[in-house]
Amino acid sequence: MPLGAARFGLQSGDLGSLELIESQTVSSVSAINFTSLKGSIYDVHLFVYKKVHFISSANNFSIRVSDDGGSSYESSNYQFAMMYSSQVAGENQYRNNSASQIDIGLVGSPTTGQSMQGWFYMYNANNSSENTLFSGHGVSFGSTDHHGQSMHWGGGTYTQGATVNALQLKGDGGDTIETATVDLYGIKQL
């Protein structure tokens, strides 16, 4: 066992395991829906997204949740705060205390080849007595328009106590997602 792994085992113990629930690679879709979160097994989820492009305009990559298995997605009761830094816009914050979704990342113009990669955690999805919480980080690569090379980090909450059993990713402006790959993992507590 490598020394680093041994130290981790001695200092922290076994914290749990990461298990792939679902992986989606999409093209030309309005949204990416995850309708099997396996919330009765996992109280923490990890979403890893890569190569996110939108077809015609710059967008924020956004989250909406569902408590009816994905038949509908909630369009209110969200709050979020994001910090971002780019060579175009410098350092800024972006927040909303009464939002229709949680914005988790910034993607510039697809016509200049920008794409976004990143991850976010979701907590308490299966617990109707708690708010569902999110935190994450991402990077965007592209030209010097809009945000250019940028990084973003932040978090948010769905402020209604509900059993969240599905999640949707979309562009905040409604633009079509040209390409994206998203992996959903459950973190199993031991």
What would your notes on this structure say?
The chain has a single domain, classed as Jelly Rolls (Sandwich). The protein is built from 1 helix and 12 strands. β8 and β9 form a beta hairpin. The two termini are 21 Å apart.
Q: Tell me what the CATH architecture is.
A: Sandwich
Task: Assign a percent range to the helix content.
Answer: under 10%
Mean pLDDT: 84
How many helical elements? 1
Give the terminus-to-terminus CA distance.
Answer: 21 Å
What is the 3D form?
globular
Structural class: mainly beta
The share of residues in extended strands comes to: over 45%
Give the neighbour order of strands across the main sheet: 1-12-3-8-9-10-5-6
Number of strands: 12
**Regions with little confidence, pLDDT below 50 for 5+ residues:** 3-10
Overall CATH class: Mainly Beta
Domains (count): 1
The largest sheet, given as strand count, sense and whether it forms a barrel, is: 8 strands, antiparallel
Q: What is the name of the CATH topology?
A: Jelly Rolls
Element-by-element helix/strand order: HEEEEEEEEEEEE
Radius of gyration: 17 Å
Task: Summarize this structure briefly.
The protein is mainly β and 190 residues long.
